[in-house]
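Hypothesis: this fold can be encoded by more than one sequence.
Test: take the structure tokens below, design a sequence, compare later.
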């Protein structure tokens, strides 16, 4: 029993220490993301910078890019937002540098999914927003089905292959809100939130270690008294 209790205490303490380390990582991540959200927009990474794009240093960076929308290649990705169920409107923006980037122009409700219901500005457009890392494969238990036009995640590679885009950025941009809050699609609905329960998890593991140690101590002491 003493051996089993010792192993249990060590295991629980190890899990508690691991959660403390996760807490430090999560706290640092939140601080870095908040700093990116507050920073001014920078030019969106160009083709030469694409190999270095990664979620850790780049997700939620504020970026800006200029180009022309190709509305003939719009794709609708199922979404649920604070405004209810509907779709993200994904539109490729062709830059004058010869490459395209997918823009999540915003949200449209299920009953407003037709192209005629949303604005389609012509000419060069300056777009600012949050850089987002591609979301491959689909959603939980629901795979993207390009042939049927069913999209559940913003998978840049699959979207580009379906739309016939040869040179495209490996990320997409969640556009900022437009000047008219009533116009569709509604931009600026990105939710940046990180669950951070590692402190409570750590305290739970440490409490379990302390409880096991105390329980084992009292049981072993009682057995020793009976033996005497």
């Amino acid at each position: 029993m003493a051996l089993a209790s010792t192993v249990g205490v060590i295991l629980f303490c190890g899990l508690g220490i691991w959660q403390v380390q996760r807490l430090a990582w999560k706290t640092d991540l939140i601080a870095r993301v908040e700093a990116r959200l507050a920073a001014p927009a920078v030019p969106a990474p160009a083709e030469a910078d694409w190999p270095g794009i990664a979620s850790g240093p780049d997700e939620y960076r504020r970026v800006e890019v200029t180009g022309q929308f190709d509305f003939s290649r719009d794709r609708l990705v199922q979404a649920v937002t604070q405004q209810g169920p509907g779709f993200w409107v994904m539109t490729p923006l062709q830059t004058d540098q010869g490459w395209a980037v997918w823009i999540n122009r915003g949200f449209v409700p299920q009953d407003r999914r037709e192209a005629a219901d949303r604005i389609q500005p012509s000419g060069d457009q300056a777009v600012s927003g949050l850089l987002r890392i591609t979301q491959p494969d689909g959603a939980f238990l629901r795979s993207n089905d390009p042939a049927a036009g069913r999209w559940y995640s913003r998978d840049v590679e699959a979207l580009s292959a379906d739309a016939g885009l040869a040179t495209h950025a490996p990320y997409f941009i969640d556009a900022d809100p437009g000047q008219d809050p009533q116009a569709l699609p509604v931009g600026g609905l990105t939710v940046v939130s990180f669950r951070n329960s590692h402190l409570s998890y750590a305290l739970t593991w440490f409490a379990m270690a302390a409880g096991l140690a105390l329980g084992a101590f009292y049981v072993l002491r009682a057995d020793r008294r009976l033996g005497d």
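Strands lie at 42-43, 62-69, 75-81, 84-94, 100-109, 125-133, 138-139, 142-143, 168-175. The mean pLDDT is 88.
Hypothesis status: open.
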